[in-house]
Write a structure and sequence with these properties.
The protein is α/β, with parallel strands linked by helices. It has helices spanning 5-22, 53-70, 88-99, 135-151, 155-170, 176-190, 193-220, 233-256, 270-296, 300-313, 323-337, 370-377, 469-477; strands at 27-28, 44-45, 73-79, 81-82, 109-115, 120-125, 354-355, 381-387, 394-400, 418-427, 435-443, 449-457, 494-496.
Length: 497
Amino acid sequence: MQNNLPLKTVLLFVLILFSNALFAQKAYLVSELPDPKQNGGGWVSNPDGILNESDVAGINSTITELESKTNVQLAVVIVNDFDHNQEDFDFAYKLFSTWGIGQKSSNNGVLLFIAKDRRKYRFITGTGAEGVLPDVKLKHIAEQNLLPAFRENDFSTGIINTLNAMGLIILNPENKSELNQLFTQQTGNNNLEKLWIPTAIICLSFFGLFRLLKRYSTKKLKPKKTDKNDYNPALIKGCAVIFIILIFITIILFITGGFSIFKEIKPDSIPLILFCILSISLFFRYLFLIDEIRKTYNDDENFSDAVKSFHQKYWWLIAFSPLILFAVIRQVFRRKEANNRFKPILDSKQQAMIRLDRDINVEGKPFLTEGQRKEEIIKAYDYDIWESTDHKEHIIKAWPAEKYDQFTECPSCKFRTYQLEKQVTVKTATYTHDGQAKLINECSFCKHAEFIRWITLPMLVKESPRSSSGSSSSGSSSSSSSWGGGSSSGGGTGGSW
């Protein structure tokens, strides 16, 4: 028997160590604490069971009643222990921010964090609640209601007494202005009825503007379907620039995870966002209108005068779409540059010559050759024809047009109608075989051509459908808590018992 005693003693010692390790208190990380809003929708997180079920129900009932009267949302977290690498303030502040306690519109949240084993408590208040619950008052409430009960290990009574004392402070007539502000912020952001008036005004205003521009287009403009005016380069460039900017912003948001900023958009921002969207739409409608004016007038001077007349009459559109201002400024500079072009030329008798209206004489006959007219059609040159008053003299002046740089002088006919490295498809590529094209230099007037080489067009490839499960799961994992996204600047108080 005596030889067995040491062995029993060792086994008992090991059993005690194992039991202590098994029942050791957990030191929680912020990420490990259960959020009551996602676990039954209450206000109390009690993972270690320090409070019994009836205590939790009573505290939840007290907070619910307090929230209905004061619009202050309280969270109570009570644990045995927490992360040993953090102080109670840092831990509680991080917990408040992680959950987003309170409403984002009013920051009306308050957190009461309690660590039983460390005998620590900490209040963290949202920025909107600091005015009605300043640090000094919270400290006084804790000393009078919370600490005496905690010293007797009566945590439920201490918490409820503290909550009731906070309610008396908030509902004090002296704090009426702060209390009204909390309710005003909440109703002002949650009541969408107040958004209908500005939203309706914006929608009706832009609807009227689009109708006005359509009426102007119908009554004043009669676009001609000519090769010269098949599109407006400024319109194409403007659309391309905005499209590139949108792609660039999307890439940046994707890389930085910035799509979460859309969660920060408040309901009262809807009218502003709507105005911006409609403002951009109006800008594009303006560009299309300028394009219609371009297609109405073959003569460049008539086109310039028509645009000037439109700007003088509808300059106030800039107030609804500031982007139009840049287009107007650009047109003003282009008109100044063209002053020398449209300035009358003197004939041999020093008499002012008359410029031929190309809307009346589109082909420029009998002054322009077929080659010169072809240069106009492909937009390599614009020709101004000046004729003396006695019709005995005329002068032709060439001006580089929109596609001047895309052509060069043809070695055969000598007109600027020669396009270099033009790709002509001979066999179209499909999903089953490659295609073929030839690269040539070709004149669009005399059809002189020089073969350069053959080009293989790669076979078309069908895109495989992408799975959206990855993106959806990442989106759900990053969603904010159901508290409402409140924030704190670090206000509150704390201490020990």
